[in-house]
Amino acid sequence: MLKVKKIAIDTEPENTVFLSKHCTSYRAEEFRALKKIEIHSQDQTVKNNILATLLIADDPSLVAPDELALGEQAFRRLALPEGSIVSIAQAQPPTSLDAVRRKITGEVMTADEIDAIIEDIANYRYSPMEIAAYLIASASFTTTEEVLATTKAMAKTGTQLSWESPIIVDKHCIGGVPGNRTSMIVTPIVAAHGLQMPKTSSRSITSPSGTADTMEVLANVSLSIDQMRNIVQKESACLVWGGRVNLSPADDVLITVERPLAIDTREQMVASILSKKLAAGSTHIVLDIPVGPTAKVRTQNDAVRLRKLMEYVSSEIGLVINTVFTDGSQPVGRGIGPVLEARDVMAVLRNMPDAPADLKARSLLLAGHVLDFDPVLHGGAGRVRAQELLDSGEALAAMERIIDAQGRTNETICPGNLTAEVVAPGNGQVTAMNCFRIARIARLAGAPMDKGAGLDLFKKVGDRVTKGEPLYRIHSCFSSDFQFAKAMAFEDAGISIDAIEVQESISK
């Protein structure tokens, strides 16, 4: 028997535990080769048990011979107090792995097999290597019916919300374009109109900021389901972090393996997005697909194929979806990074004269499509109604109420004080902006870990520049991040500038 000990080691998303090399209850050498063990509570009234990756430790200050030390994730999921008595045993491989092996050979999985795989992934029974095998096999060949089954399986593994209103609207962007923070403008516009929009958003994984990261500059986003329900009932909408309410948890596990392997297939994207919308209780969704040479979706043909798959799965699970193709050729707004994006959002809501015109126009377009779901509005009137709500200040008032209801952030967060300007190498015109590289530079600067880090853009495609004129300013809060971002930006700023030929007229 071993006593549970918590240690401050972050091994997200895995469960990791440490056993002393000099353990008094087990021979550590017998467990050294094991990749997974099962931990059982010895309290007969408690049924807690988890699977975890085991590491052997030599340092008695880390784990004593009669202890089992649990990393932060394992300790939280085991949900037992420190000092609780547990036993360990060799973990049996999940039986659902048999279906993964058959998938690797090209077989089609049944809905029951997919259910079992997703449940095991959601419960951390798969190692990253096993998840990778599943993802790569699925990326090679996945049928439409497998996508549908995966969406349903992912939606039912976690929390499933339900609402009294017959119409619950949502808006989602597939990502890939820095600064595209339209949800924070669309949501208060929709709330001001009176449609219910319980907006759950993700934190960033590889981008400079997710909607939840940017909203956190203004308000608390880590709300419980009950808090979320109360706010939506009172204010018609919220902007919260989806991870707290545990929507489609298998997707969060899959993403941690997809991103390093650069696996981002249409099929997995559809299952990821729609499973969370289904679990959130949404009924009507506007899907924004930016299309551009450095965005997630590069061509119009790819966008159409993605839209058709989205529409098919949505119809099968009872969701009404309206897909909108938008410009993904360059960043949206001026700010990239939480505090700079929040500045742009509030400038639009406050109708400030210097608010980013592209962010405003895109937000009104998408808000109009969401409002068109309201049967009270005549066809196509949503865009006009969205403009009215923004111009009148009703959208701003709705946003202020949502911020107060969620818990206004008292701390004033400013852009990072370590700054450097990236300037034009010569005279000319901006002809292209690399969304991927610009996002990478902003992330190297420290975003979103540091809310004040990121980039402040001064130029967009079509703008004329002169040699030495600033293209954007890097903001950072930490010296090493600042140096990394500068080095990458000065090597290649991610902005293409072509010289403009000037023809001189010769007077005769």
Structure explained in plain terms:
By secondary structure, this protein is an alpha/beta fold. It contains 18 helices and 18 strands. It has helices spanning 28-31, 72-78, 97-104, 111-122, 128-140, 144-155, 183-193, 211-215, 225-235, 249-261, 266-279, 300-317, 338-349, 357-371, 382-391, 394-406, 435-444, 479-491, and strands spanning 2-6, 16-20, 37-41, 49-57, 67-70, 85-90, 169-173, 197-201, 237-241, 284-291, 320-327, 335-336, 418-423, 428-433, 454-457, 464-465, 470-476, 495-498. The strands form 5 sheets. Strands 1-5-2-4-3-6 form a 6-stranded mixed beta barrel. Strands 12-15-17-13 form a 4-stranded antiparallel β-sheet. Helix 17 (435-444) packs antiparallel against helix 18 (479-491). The radius of gyration is 25 Å and the shape is globular. The relative contact order is 0.11. The model is unreliable at 502-508 (pLDDT under 50).
Quaternary state reads: single chain
User: On the 0-100 scale, what is the average pLDDT?
Assistant: 92
Rg computed from alpha carbons, rounded to a whole number of angstroms: 25 Å
- In whole angstroms, the N-to-C terminal distance is 102 Å
Q: What does the largest sheet look like?
A: 6 strands, mixed, barrel
Outline type? globular
Helix content, binned percent: 25-40%
Which parts are unreliable, with pLDDT below 50 for 5 consecutive residues or more? 502-508
Number of strands: 18
Which band does the percent of strand residues land in?
A: 15-25%
